[in-house]
Amino acid sequence: MTKRPGRPRWQLLADDLRQRISSGEYSPGDQLPAKTSLAEQWEVSVNTVERALSELRDEGVVETFHGLGSFVRTAPEPEPANDEIEEIRERLARLETQMEEVYANLILHHPSESSDTATQEAG
To answer: Is the model's pTM score more than 0.85?
Structure first.
């Protein structure tokens, strides 16, 4: 391992594991080496390895199961396409309009109206 000044060893280990995952050396579903094995390989404490794995867990790159080890996460679900988002926005706008009509038919004030207006009309 090449030590770079200013970078903690846990970050270097996390960077190395991240690079190995992105290069395909570790594929989704693969188990990473045990903490003790990584600690020996990197000549660091198990706490340092845990800190690196914690970083990768926070990023959603790996997941750890008690008693089983750490595994590369499967690829996340793709983000909805822009046309799906636009469809959801249109549906939301239609629902908002329908709710305003319901409130008007019941002679109620829609929650999006200013509370000051509702207070003045009630008094």
So the answer is: no
